[in-house]
Every structure is written in structure tokens, then in C-alpha cells.
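Record minuted for completeness.

…
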Amino acid sequence: MPAPLRGVQCRGDLLNFGAVLGVVSAFLDEQGCRYAVIGGVALISYGLPRTTVDLDFVVESSIQDDLIAFLEARGYETLGRSKGYSTHTHTDAVWGRLDFVYIGGDTSRKLFDGCRFLPGPGGREVAVPSPEHLAALKVTAMKNDPTRLFQDLADIRFLLTVPGVDRRQIEDYFVRQGLKDRFDELEKTL
């Protein structure tokens, strides 16, 4: 298991990952909503040294309206919102930027049932999706926003090296998005 995250920061004095995680987690727990940390913090939890500037979550889609109302009551501005995604920022840099991916149905069940509990910001254990599910989120993001290609490929390359990872499952996510050639390129680098 990777060492606990110490001092996860974005550019030194900005987002207080531990405090924000505590506030958002408390709200989601109170609502009985399943959630997990994704993005840079999840990758750090698996042992990839990297800098991140925001805190990303995947949550059950049924919480979207209540979650956004909660965040806005705490001073967050909603910068964008769709059925499957919302992004928020706070004028106080300590509260920073938050991104949420909303999932439901069978996808939700599979992802949350496969979560691992790993050391997160402030030494707090956090639910983190399996490496395969993190890769699926990255492949989808890459498909929807080609500017993310190189960073997401680097992250997926790391996930392919996590002990016990199911490489064929990750390959299948690439195939589904019409990106099989990108997976083949990654495999050549391992």
C-alpha cells in the first residue's frame, strides 16, 4: 500500500485538500451518497508522484441537485453543469476548484463496489476507484477532450503498472471509445 499523502498541494499555499475533502465527504456521507476521489489525488493515492490543482470526485447521479445547492451555499460558483459533470470554484483559494462526475445504474454499482480505501489528503483514508475504472474515466475524458491526450495517456500508463491490474479490461475501454491504437502504443512502452 502506498505511503499516506503528506502535504498534497497545488502550488504551495492554495487548495487545502484535507479540509475540502472533509467538508464534502461529511455532506455526502450525511446524504448516504456513495462517492470516490478520482483525478490527481486518486493517482497520488496509488503512488504516482504528481501535482494537482483541484479535487475530483465521482458520485451517484441522484445527488447532483442537492450537492450543487450545498456547494453554492458554501460560496462555490458553478462554472459548468451537465447531466454527467459539474465544476465549481471558490473565491477563497483554500477552498479551490472541485469537479464532479455523476454516474448511476450498473456503472455506479460496478465502480463503487470495486473501490479501494487508500491513504488520502491529511492522512484520511479515501475511497478510490480501481485502476481499471480510473483508466475508463481517463479514456472517456480523452475521447471527449483531445487536449487531455498526453497527460491522460501518461496516467493510464502508470495505472497499467499497478500490481494486479487487468490490462485486458483497460484495453476494452480503449476499444469501446475507438482508441485501440492508443492502447497499442501504450503497451509498447511497458
